[in-house]
């Protein structure tokens, strides 16, 4: 039987009109005055209201919106799943709305503040229902944030998945949640919650703890989205939404504690004595503060000097908001008990109730922004202090939320003249008659589609905070198709951000034009790349940059905020990278030298960005100009790959793209130069050169050096073969590098630089090798030279042999060689967009 197909549904007014008529506007409330709002709680794909705990989830078919001709059509097309499954979960998870195209729910927001957004997914399937929700693969976005990427709701426990997010909505108006199917798959949702949280539930500032244990102040939490990863009731039972003031789930800590025999549970039956200045019943519910884990004191009455530790799997090299909840139900008086709280064993803070509150049984909490390390596990510990009269420690609750950076893009939902919606409804009624109707309907739709093609169903981003939203249609003579209109930034906005291209804000100059630092009206720092008349680079690079960056989003790829092509201008607007280019930090005399650990972390970040381009993005992307000037660093030295003007898109698995050679001398893949057949392994070769730059702190090409030393790749591999590679390692690294880490790093670079692409690793392999090199460095393992090399070593492998093209003979400044172009002209290679000095930014 043909699989059901579901058309795009734009689900704003008809699902929410009832709410707007029933409920009055909320006021901006403090925690003390707060009461749980009534909107929005939605039972998706249903006409039935479901009371679930403290709130009534209204069926999104309960609307009299006559403007949507999809209501009756949806109501008449329901498919049944097996009756034995219909009783497994609550009615909330017995219906779902399914999307085959980019779709959105739209909410009217009349009160600014921090909002909860909860998405409920339950992947049911049935022998009578050809739509198996466990096969869905999709993304979920909101304006400015990608919430879920490559998401599937399939799980072995056959239970609902609830994804919770918190973020600030800074102005009244429309708020949208987008569902974007991946490839030929579809998206679905069972239920949604969007409601205002109490004021000051989330603070804008916190103590920042780096992976190395260093600390500083962090501001701007409220400008990010928070994805709740863990919410733990330490020492107590599961707390369900019915027992939580904000409908949250709190799970026991039993699955996360390392040595449960060293700890014991304690319980205080009396209700906590809340002080709103430190914590309220909305910070965490009573059951969290009434229970705790404390040290298991031995029979002699003395506590062993040990710590209680919990471990949590987190995304590596990400940033998390950690909220640690305390309520002293252990000590004899408020001043008796002090202890240490540890994060990653590298940061500690003294905890004592008397420093926060005046009485026992009074809740308080601490908050930290924590950078996760490469281990993928965040450890939280408590332990006694020598100066405490009581050798004990306790913990009541813990929350870990991943901080999502703002994205310059969200999907667009294209309007169609004929809107059709199909609904998956769990019911024992229905059957073959309905399925036949669906089959006939699909035959008719298919026939209509063949007669009149639909509009492009792909998605394109729109700027954060609505930059460029005032442009609703293409300007006359637009160079880019209407598909990218949502990315347009008005010229007036750019002029305001750069103070009319003030020369004092000039931070770089390259073949394309000048690069300026700017600040948008809402405070976001940007880099503005402006084309100049007579520029060597023109519309093809401009167009490629917009097309490529509008389709990708990754922590280690620089984000495009928008573009402008008014008044014959060609302008690209990017996120601003505070620390400049990797090249600056390797050679520039006025920039602090990077440590070996920092260099490894930067290489890993850049490798992950390329890994995503090759395999994680739609269709695959070959960067084609990987070099140290195109690896930018943010304020925390997180690496991001930049400059996609020369990129090529297309399927990369065992294929190539025939194209005229483009790139930068010193980084060019010799196989690509000979054959003009571009593959992802060309990026791997260039990245191998970058690895040598990082190790040796010298340019890929330096024409001032003797002949054998001009090309870094050739020279380094020759030195390795002769056993003298140590002589060209950056002197500032002497004594820093663990030999095993250096050996693995060099072997990785050597593998990348093999003459033939088939002999080079994938970026997946490169990431793995570099992570291992970092692990060796961190653990400072001292091994014999042969112990962690691969096989018998790689010193005997063929050296890369970059064949020179005789038509290129130019004068160079010793930093970057020219870019090769279609017309054979030479274009100065460019640095990234940053506050650092950039002599030749693209």
How does this structure look, described?
This protein is of the alpha+beta class and 842 residues long. It has four domains: 10-200 and 409-451, Jelly Rolls (Sandwich), CATH 2.60.120.430; 225-404, Jelly Rolls (Sandwich), CATH 2.60.120.430; 464-575, 2-Layer Sandwich (Phosphorylase Kinase, domain 1), CATH 3.30.200.20; 580-828, Transferase(Phosphotransferase), domain 1, CATH 1.10.510.10. It is 18% helix and 25% strand. It contains 14 helices and 43 strands. The strands form ten sheets. Strands 2, 3, 4, 7, 10, 13, 14, 15, 16, 17, 21, 24 and 27 form a 13-stranded mixed beta sheet that branches. A five-stranded mixed beta sheet has the order 1-6-11-8-9. Helix 9 (596-616) runs antiparallel to helix 14 (763-779), helix 11 packs antiparallel against helix 13 (739-752) and helix 13 packs antiparallel against helix 14. The two termini are 54 Å apart.
Structure characteristics:
alpha+beta, 18% helix, Phosphorylase Kinase, domain 1, Jelly Rolls, 4 domains, 14 helices, 5-stranded mixed beta sheet, 13-stranded mixed beta sheet, 43 strands, 842 residues
Write the layout of secondary structure elements.
Elements: E1 10-11, H1 13-22, E2 41-43, E3 50-52, E4 55-59, H2 70-75, H3 83-86, E5 95-99, E6 103-109, E7 113-121, E8 138-142, E9 145-151, E10 161-169, E11 173-181, E12 187-189, E13 191-196, E14 205-209, E15 215-219, E16 225-233, E17 251-252, E18 263-267, H4 286-289, E19 291-295, E20 308-313, E21 319-326, E22 338-343, E23 347-352, E24 364-371, E25 377-384, E26 394-395, E27 397-404, E28 423-425, H5 432-451, H6 491-497, E29 506-509, E30 513-519, E31 525-531, H7 539-550, E32 560-564, E33 571-575, E34 580-581, H8 582-587, H9 596-616, E35 621-622, E36 631-633, E37 639-641, E38 648-649, E39 657-658, E40 663-664, H10 670-675, E41 677-678, H11 680-696, H12 712-722, H13 739-752, H14 763-779, E42 818-820, E43 826-828
Parallel strand pairs: 1-6, 2-4, 14-24, 16-17
Antiparallel strand pairs: 2-13, 3-4, 5-12, 5-28, 6-11, 7-10, 7-13, 8-9, 8-11, 10-16, 14-15, 16-27, 18-19, 19-26, 20-25, 21-24, 21-27, 22-23, 22-25, 29-30, 30-31, 31-33, 32-33, 34-36, 35-38, 36-37, 39-41, 40-42, 42-43
Helix pairs in contact: 9-11, 9-14, 11-13, 13-14
């Amino acid at each position: 039987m043909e699989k059901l197909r579901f058309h795009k549904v734009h689900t704003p007014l008809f699902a929410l009109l009832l709410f707007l008529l029933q409920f009055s506007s909320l006021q901006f409330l403090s925690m003390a005055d707060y009461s749980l709002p009534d909107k929005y709680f939605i039972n998706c794909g249903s006409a039935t209201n479901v009371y679930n705990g403290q709130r009534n989830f209204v069926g999104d078919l309960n609307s009299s919106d006559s403007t949507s001709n999809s209501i009756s059509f949806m109501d008449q097309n329901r498919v049944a799943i097996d009756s034995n499954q219909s009783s497994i979960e609550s009615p909330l998870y017995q219906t779902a709305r399914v999307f085959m195209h980019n779709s959105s729910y739209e909410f009217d927001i009349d009160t600014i503040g921090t909002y909860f957004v909860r998405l409920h997914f339950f992947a049911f399937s049935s022998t009578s229902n050809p739509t198996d929700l466990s096969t869905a693969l999709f993304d979920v976005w909101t304006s400015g944030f990608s919430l879920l990427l490559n998401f599937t709701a399939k799980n072995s426990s056959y239970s609902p998945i609830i994804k919770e997010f918190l973020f600030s909505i800074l102005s009244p108006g429309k708020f949208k949640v987008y569902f974007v199917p991946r490839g030929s798959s579809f998206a679905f949702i069972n239920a949604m919650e969007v409601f205002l949280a109490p004021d000051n539930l989330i603070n804008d500032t916190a103590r920042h703890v780096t992976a190395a244990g260093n600390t500083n102040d962090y501001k701007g939490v409220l400008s990010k989205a928070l994805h709740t990863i863990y919410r733990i009731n330490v020492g107590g039972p599961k707390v369900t939404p019915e027992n939580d003031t904000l409908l949250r789930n709190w799970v026991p800590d039993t699955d996360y504690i390392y040595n449960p025999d060293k700890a014991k549970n304690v319980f205080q039956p009396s209700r906590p004595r809340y002080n709103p200045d430190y914590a309220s019943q909305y910070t965490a519910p009573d059951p969290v503060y009434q229970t705790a884990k404390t040290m298991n004191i031995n029979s002699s009455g003395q506590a062993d000097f040990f710590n209680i530790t919990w471990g949590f799997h987190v995304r590596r090299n990400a940033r998390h908001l950690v909220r640690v909840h305390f309520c002293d139900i252990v000590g004899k008086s408020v001043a008796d008990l002090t202890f240490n709280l540890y994060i990653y064993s590298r940061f500690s803070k003294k905890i004592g109730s008397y420093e926060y509150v005046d009485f026992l049984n009074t809740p308080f909490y601490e908050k930290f922004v924590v950078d996760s390390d490469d281990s993928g596990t965040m450890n939280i510990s408590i332990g006694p202090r020598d100066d405490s009269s009581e050798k004990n420690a306790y913990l009541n609750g813990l929350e870990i939320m991943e901080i999502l950076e703002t994205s310059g893009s969200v999907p667009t939902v294209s309007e169609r003249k004929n809107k059709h919606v199909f609904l998956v409804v769990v019911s024992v009624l229905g059957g073959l008659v309905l399925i036949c109707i669906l089959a006939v309907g699909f035959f008719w739709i298919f026939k209509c589609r063949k007669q009149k093609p639909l509009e492009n169903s792909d998605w394109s981003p729109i700027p954060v905070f609505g930059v460029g939203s005032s442009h609703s249609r293409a300007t006359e003579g637009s160079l880019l198709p209407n598909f990218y209109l949502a990315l347009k930034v008005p010229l007036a906005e750019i002029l305001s951000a750069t103070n009319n291209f003030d020369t004092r804000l000039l931070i770089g100059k390259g073949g394309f034009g000048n690069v300026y630092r700017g600040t948008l009206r809402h405070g976001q720092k940007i880099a503005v790349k402006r084309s100049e008349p007579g520029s060597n680079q023109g519309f093809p690079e401009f167009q490629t940059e917009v097309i490529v960056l509008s389709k990708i989003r990754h922590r280690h790829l620089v984000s495009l905020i928008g573009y402008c092509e008014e008044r014959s201008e060609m302008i690209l607007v990017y996120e601003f990278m505070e620390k400049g280019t990797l090249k600056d930090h390797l050679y520039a005399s006025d920039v602090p030298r990077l440590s070996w650990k920092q260099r490894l972390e930067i290489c890993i970040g850049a490798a992950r960005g390329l890994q995503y381009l090759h395999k994680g993005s739609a269709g695959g992307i070959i960067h084609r100009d990987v070099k140290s000037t195109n690896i930018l660093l943010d304020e925390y030295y997180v690496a991001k790959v930049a400059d996609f003007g020369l990129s090529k898109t297309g399927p990369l698995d065992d294929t190539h793209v025939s194209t005229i050679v483009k790139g930068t001398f010193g980084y060019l893949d010799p196989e690509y130069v000979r054959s003009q057949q571009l593959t992802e392994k060309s990026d791997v070769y260039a990245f191998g050169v970058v690895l040598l730059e990082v190790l040796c702190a010298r340019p890929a090409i330096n024409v001032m050096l003797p002949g054998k030393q001009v090309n870094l790749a050739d020279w380094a591999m020759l030195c390795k073969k002769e056993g003298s590679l140590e002589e060209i390692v950056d002197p500032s690294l002497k004594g820093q590098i663990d030999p095993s880490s250096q050996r693995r790093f060099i072997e990785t670079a050597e593998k990348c630089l093999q003459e033939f692409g088939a002999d080079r690793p994938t970026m997946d392999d490169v990431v793995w090798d570099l992570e291992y090199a970092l692990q060796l460095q961190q653990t400072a393992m001292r091994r014999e030279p042969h112990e962690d090399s691969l096989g018998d070593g790689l010193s005997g492998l063929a050296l890369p042999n970059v064949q020179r093209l005789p038509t290129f003979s130019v004068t160079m400044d010793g930093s970057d060689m020219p870019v090769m172009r279609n017309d054979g002209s030479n274009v100065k290679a460019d640095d990234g967009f940053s506050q650092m000095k950039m002599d030749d930014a693209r």
